[in-house]
TrEMBL record:
<feature type="binding site">
    <location>
        <position position="128"/>
    </location>
    <ligand>
        <name>substrate</name>
    </ligand>
</feature>
<feature type="binding site">
    <location>
        <position position="255"/>
    </location>
    <ligand>
        <name>NAD(+)</name>
    </ligand>
</feature>
<dbReference type="InterPro" id="IPR006097">
    <property type="entry name" value="Glu/Leu/Phe/Val/Trp_DH_dimer"/>
</dbReference>
<keyword id="KW-0547">Nucleotide-binding</keyword>
<dbReference type="GO" id="GO:0005829">
    <property type="term" value="C:cytosol"/>
</dbReference>
<feature type="binding site">
    <location>
        <position position="392"/>
    </location>
    <ligand>
        <name>substrate</name>
    </ligand>
</feature>
<feature type="site" description="Important for catalysis">
    <location>
        <position position="180"/>
    </location>
</feature>
<dbReference type="InterPro" id="IPR046346">
    <property type="entry name" value="Aminoacid_DH-like_N_sf"/>
</dbReference>
<dbReference type="GO" id="GO:0004354">
    <property type="term" value="F:glutamate dehydrogenase (NADP+) activity"/>
</dbReference>
<feature type="domain" description="Glutamate/phenylalanine/leucine/valine/L-tryptophan dehydrogenase C-terminal">
    <location>
        <begin position="217"/>
        <end position="458"/>
    </location>
</feature>
<feature type="binding site">
    <location>
        <position position="125"/>
    </location>
    <ligand>
        <name>substrate</name>
    </ligand>
</feature>
<feature type="binding site">
    <location>
        <position position="179"/>
    </location>
    <ligand>
        <name>substrate</name>
    </ligand>
</feature>
<feature type="binding site">
    <location>
        <position position="104"/>
    </location>
    <ligand>
        <name>substrate</name>
    </ligand>
</feature>
<dbReference type="InterPro" id="IPR014362">
    <property type="entry name" value="Glu_DH"/>
</dbReference>
<comment type="similarity">
    <text>Belongs to the Glu/Leu/Phe/Val dehydrogenases family.</text>
</comment>
<keyword id="KW-0520">NAD</keyword>
<dbReference type="InterPro" id="IPR006095">
    <property type="entry name" value="Glu/Leu/Phe/Val/Trp_DH"/>
</dbReference>
Amino acid sequence: MLSTKEHVTKEEKVVIDYMNKIYEKIKERDPHEKEFLQATKILFDSLIPVFVKNRTYIENNVLERLIEPERVISFRVPWVDDHGNVQVNRGYRVQFNSAIGPYKGGIRFHPSVNLSVMKFLALTQIFKNSLTGQAIGGGKGGADFDPKGKSDNEIMHFCQSFMTELYKHIGPDTDVPAGDIGVSRREVGYMFGQYKRLQGAFHAGVLTGKGLNYGGSLGRTEATGYGTIYFVDEMLKDQRMNFRNMTIITSGSGNVAIYAMEKAIKLGAKVVACSDSNGYVYDKNGLSLQTIKRIKFSEGARISEYIKSHPEAEYFDDCSKIWSVPCDIALPCATQNEIDEESANMLVKNGVKVVAEGANMPCTIEAIDIFLDNGVLFGPAQAVNAGGVACSSLEMAQNSARLSWTFEQVDEELQKIMKNIYRNCTRAANKYEHPGNLVIGANIAGFTKVADTMIEQGVI
Ligand SMILES: NC(=O)C1=CN([C@@H]2O[C@H](COP(=O)(O)OP(=O)(O)OC[C@H]3O[C@@H](n4cnc5c(N)ncnc54)[C@H](O)[C@@H]3O)[C@@H](O)[C@H]2O)C=CC1
Ligand SMILES: O=C(O)CCC(=O)C(=O)O
């Protein structure tokens, strides 16, 4: 059931009834897909104002079509570990929507991967990709494989086996995967190598996030984290604020978190806490990014190592408690549903000014409501972290043109894209009479382009 205000107009009731019918149908069909249902609910709730004003979306039953993936691929991934044991994982690719371009979205290797997680990520990717202004549809893939503790040889064999099935379904004009949790340049390299071997041809544009020697783009590694900060900068500027002397906490210490920290520090902020899935480190005077990079990028170790070289910092072995650290800006950059009602209340009590989702759906529905009800500036994932996929699209453009841009060119383009996304979200929120509500703004701005295109292309 969708959430409703106490008083709804006649027009709103028609829309809510229409949406509820679809929501109940998908819930009945896949009741166990809790992340997918959560993302659907957030989406439907925020689209009510645009459906009230545009009857054509109901007449064309766009929502019921859009909420069903165009294609779901699920496959066996067998591989042999270093001890000679045969292991089996389950792989996925959800090709959700190709109205405005080839499917585009990352690949996640994590034990929590299941169809519900894949579907929620692919669904939200549709609107994120639409917001970038580029011609990319929405998809996502992954496997319930845990890279933690695996040797390089095991990672390579897993990636090769994964691609041995996936290669049949992807291509530079059909579906272009990239990295996500547990998948970075190394894994993309192994997957690219296997794709090339199976195809017998070098298609640079089939994957993004590649190494620089074979078609990767400068700036892609930094893009999601930097883009997050460029977006927050726009949020702050609108309120006549900036990053100088702001206290920041970020969850995670992976690709997104590290480059968000880097750019925020460059703009004058102080990052006092960050985490990994075991725990978090805190230093009221600011953490050393150099040490975090060494621990995570060079040593592949746990964040608890931090206090060995920085005894002035503290380590706490419960990562979910990071939200009890007082801050001006909270950047959840790890995983889904990491900020619940209790954590949101704690952040509000401690005076948080901005919460921006570097990760995908890191805040529960209840947490988002708490932020919005308490006047916290809230940036939703599909807008805030869109810089990564936007830069992937720039990588595709460079591959097509057989060119390589400089870091400065890519970064300048990224800044323009993030400013544009912020402007389009605020414009949509204002147009549909929810000023300041970027959840509504982002979903409406992302949705309308896809929905209008689906109508133009007929019932397919
Ligand atoms: N890499 C990219 O370009 C993009 C990533 N994202 C999203 O950003 C988030 C992070 O992705 P990456 O940084 O690429 O992954 P990553 O694998 O580089 O890093 C993930 C980090 O989160 C930590 N982590 C995992 N579960 C945790 C938990 N429950 N509490 C605290 N920390 C936890 C891990 O220890 C690791 O430090 C994901 O939600 C991903 O979907 C979104 C857009 C693009
Ligand atoms: O760069 C890409 O294509 C993937 C980015 C991604 O997975 C995401 O935006 O969540």
